[in-house]
Amino acid sequence: MRADLYHRLVVAALVALLAVPVLATLAYSLAGNWGATILPDSFSVRWYLQLWHDPRFLSAFGHSLLISVATLLLSTLVIVPAVFVVFYRFPALDRTMNLLILLPFAVPPVVSSVGLLQLYADGPLPLVGTPWILIGCYFTIALPFMYRTLADSLRGMNLHDLMDAAHLLGASTPRAFLLVVAPNLRTGLMASLFLSFSFLLGEFVFANILVGTRYETLQVYLYSVRMTSGHFTSAIVMSYFVFTLVLTWFATRLGKQESQA
Amino acid sequence: MLNALTPAAAAAAGRPRRPFRHWRSALLLVPFCVLLALFCLAPLGWVVLHSVQGDDGPGFGHFREILASPFYRLAFINSLYISLWSSGCGLLIALIGAASLRRVPGRLRNAVVAFTNMTSNLAGVPLAFAFVIVIGTNGALTLLLRQWGWIDDFHLYSKGGLCLIYTYFQIPLGVLLLYPAFDALDDDWQQASALLGARLWQYWWHVALPVIAPAIFGTFILLFANAMGAYASAYALTTGNFNLITVRIASLVSGDIFLEPDLAAALSVLLTLLLVLVCTVNQMLLKRSYRAR
């Protein structure tokens, strides 16, 4: 019984520790005025009203959503067929792929942006300063998560038996893939998409170094308003946090469905 | 480079007699390889090539310049210092937390894991702002502690402050990485060791820790690499005024004063080599520990 209490206390302490910055930001964003006192004087939602009427915030948020959705669409179209081909036709490539997808994960974004900035500043592909370069970079961010999840799903099903059965029933390979394999990948794919979505919304390094204010994303906007009211920035942080909260909630729910299936 | 890669890949995987049997399937890999090459391999290649590019032909001039400069050495030392401390502290807290997390009822455990997952999203610029609110100069906690007389002043914008903020983002990551490793522990072992007269710490020291040691080590390496490469939090907190290796690299390619992309490339190579070295050592240790069992 004493041990039980100890474990509960430790877990409670862990949760409290992790919750402090979140709760403080929430309180600060709802405080009407909070000067040099420990607790706020009054509460109001005016910071949120001000934020959600700020055209610059709305456009930055829109940019972030647009880039993230475009990236995830591109990643799905490119990665799903690639993983399938690797598993169905070239299983020996899986090892190489696992190494390749670790690269964007292992190399810090600051390092790759050094090369990106020089390669695509001008020349045949002048991408720096445009949202296109972010879509490319974000593809590499989403890649490890999506590849791993899809590879796990494919490993878990009898891919060759399924394809053989579909072939026997007269389906072509693309048709068999779309009608038999793809539905089995859906849950895992959605979970990894939601997870990647929340990562991409929080991405700052590429966005700041490669594009900056030329196509302002949420994080760059957040950084640029750091000197204005702390209540206002707190309202941005909380809005962003709640948004990613919903995304991760979807991701974990889908993940659970996946493990139950 | 790409065109060479795909048929070669197909050849490696196909049957020896008909190496190009699946060439149409291999075509599906082309967009994947193009994107990866354009946005990951090519920039990395540029960095490696230009790090050995001196003013007059190839050479290791930039590396010599970096190693001779106290400024850049300090950047490395600061990065190492903050990464080691934050990974160590984060790991310790995550370890204690994950050990207890396994002992609480399932519903509570799932809720806490979900919560930890969510807080792992609080990183980078938003995290820096949240910390300013809590322990900034006029932060709620700073005021509280000052009122109680526990501290005179706390400088969030210093080495200690950065260690604190880094530790915060390491904890959820550490819990999520370590928590599954505890499944390797059999509950009977604790009872068996208790029957043999072992105290709780003896059980942990002689039985549990050696079993999960590879996971602990692997987690530490991941946290360390994560901290070494981190940039957004430190940049947002100190507007790039704190001398970290990532801040130096970024300011050499996108700063306002002088741009020296080749020098940034050399710094990047040093940072990447350091990370590769750490990961290799980890792999070697892991292999040894598995053989020992």
Secondary-structure element order of chain B, N to C: HHHEEHHHHHHHHHHH
CATH topology of the largest domain in chain B: MetI-like fold
Q: What class would the helix/strand composition of chain A place it in?
A: mainly alpha
Low-confidence stretches of chain A: none
Segments of chain B where pLDDT lies below 50 for 5+ residues? Answer: 1-17
Q: Kindly, what is the distance between the CA atoms of the first and last residues of chain B, rounded to a whole number of angstroms?
A: 44 Å
**Rg value of chain B:** 24 Å
Q: Greatest contact pair?
A: A-B, 88 and 88 residues
* Strand element count of chain A: 2
Strand order of the largest sheet of chain A: 1-2
How many E-type strands of chain B?
Answer: 2
Describe the protein's architecture and organization.
With 261 residues, chain A is mainly alpha-helical. Chain A has helices spanning 2-30, 46-52, 55-88, 94-106, 109-119, 131-156, 159-168, 173-201, 205-211, 218-224, 230-260; strands spanning 31-33, 42-43. A two-stranded antiparallel ribbon of chain A has the order 1-2. The two termini of chain A are 36 Å apart. The model of chain A has no long low-confidence stretch (mean pLDDT 88). Chain B is an all-alpha fold and 293 residues long. Chain B folds into 2 domains: 2-51, no CATH class; 64-292, MetI-like (MetI-like fold, Orthogonal Bundle). Chain B is built from 14 helices and 2 strands, in the order H-H-H-E-E-H-H-H-H-H-H-H-H-H-H-H. Chain B has a two-stranded antiparallel sheet. In chain B, a hairpin with a 2-residue loop joins strand 1 and strand 2. In chain B, 40% of the residues are buried. At the A-B interface, helix 1, helix 3, helix 4, helix 5 and helix 6 of A face helix 1, helix 3, helix 5, helix 6 and helix 7 of B.
